[in-house]
Amino acid sequence: TLLWVLVFLDYANESACEDCVPELCPVTQGCRAGLVRDSCDCCFECGNLEGQSCDAGQRNVYYGLCGEDMECKSEPSSATDDGTHEPQCVCASQRTLCGSDGQTYMNLCKFKEAAFSNPGLNAMPVIKVPPRSLVNVTGSSALFLCEVFAFPMALVEWRKESEDTVLPGDDPHISSRGGPQRFELSSWLQIEEATQTDSGTYRCVARNELGEASATALLGILPAGNTSSHISITRCLTFLLYDVSRFPHMKSHVSITLIH
């Protein structure tokens, strides 16, 4: 059966692996989906493209591993003649992107494939991971994360709605930091020793020369006191804030009053 074949191949691959000498690895070229480790976990090879068959998990055994920003999944559309579902590479982000060539790309992975063949291809920002709404207690820290895809690299700013200043501004208990990668930027906003005046709506704004994108999250700060008495309230508010953050048009109809 296929299972026994895969087990045998896995054993054969392991037994064939020698001591890893990176200097002896072949040079990889033309990898439109980025690089992955080979079956011996030593050299790099081309990752599989979207729609190609793949090995589930972290081991490169038979079909190979998916490239960057992809997951190995069994989709209904990938059913074989005997009714089994063959795992295929699926892009983790299915948001469409507008390229500088006037084309609309189905997702991040399709854009990266096109950008490999056309190095001058750019894209306006897309929020890959929006900040999540939080509920916390006075004196604690709150941390928002915002992950952005764009090329050329986007400038990411944090703002609190109803205020004109870009955070952190001159407030010593608020800081912002980021870590760039190729095409991507992760930005954090940290609020230390938060008070109830920090409650509100925070917006992550990413922009480059092609346009901008933004996402919001709500922060609720409960008054200090017996933390255990706030557990049920916190759970309720967390659910409410998460639900509201998924539907931005509802924010104007929701208000939260914190009672001392």
Detailed description of the structure:
The chain folds into two domains: 2-17 and 25-91, Omega-AgatoxinV; 125-247, Immunoglobulin-like (Sandwich). By secondary structure, the protein is an alpha+beta fold. Residues 1-13 and 242-260 have low confidence and may be disordered. The protein has a five-stranded mixed β-sheet with strand order 8-15-14-10-11. The chain is built from three helices and 15 strands. It has helices spanning 2-16, 108-117, 231-245, and strands at 35-37, 44-46, 70-73, 88-91, 97-98, 104-105, 123-129, 134-137, 142-151, 155-160, 166-167, 174-180, 184-191, 200-208, 211-222. Residues 13-92 form the IGFBP N-terminal domain. Its main location: secreted. Keywords: Disulfide bond, Immunoglobulin domain, Secreted, Signal.
CATH class of the largest domain: Mainly Beta
**CATH architecture label of the largest domain:** Sandwich
Largest β-sheet summary: 5 strands, mixed
Radius of gyration: 23 Å
Count of DSSP-assigned helices: 3
Q: Can you tell me the CATH topology of the largest domain?
A: Immunoglobulin-like
By CATH, the superfamily of the largest domain comes out as Immunoglobulins
Secondary structure category: alpha+beta
Please provide the ordered H/E string of secondary-structure elements. HEEEEEEHEEEEEEEEEH
Helix content: 10-25%
Low-confidence stretches: 1-13, 242-260
- End-to-end CA span: 66 Å
Q: How many distinct folded domains?
A: 2
InterPro entries: Growth_fac_rcpt_cys_sf, Ig-like_dom, Ig-like_dom_sf, Ig-like_fold, Ig_I-set, Ig_sub, Ig_sub2, IGFBP-like
Keywords: Disulfide bond, Immunoglobulin domain, Secreted, Signal
Domain Ig-like: 125-220
GO molecular function, one term: insulin-like growth factor binding
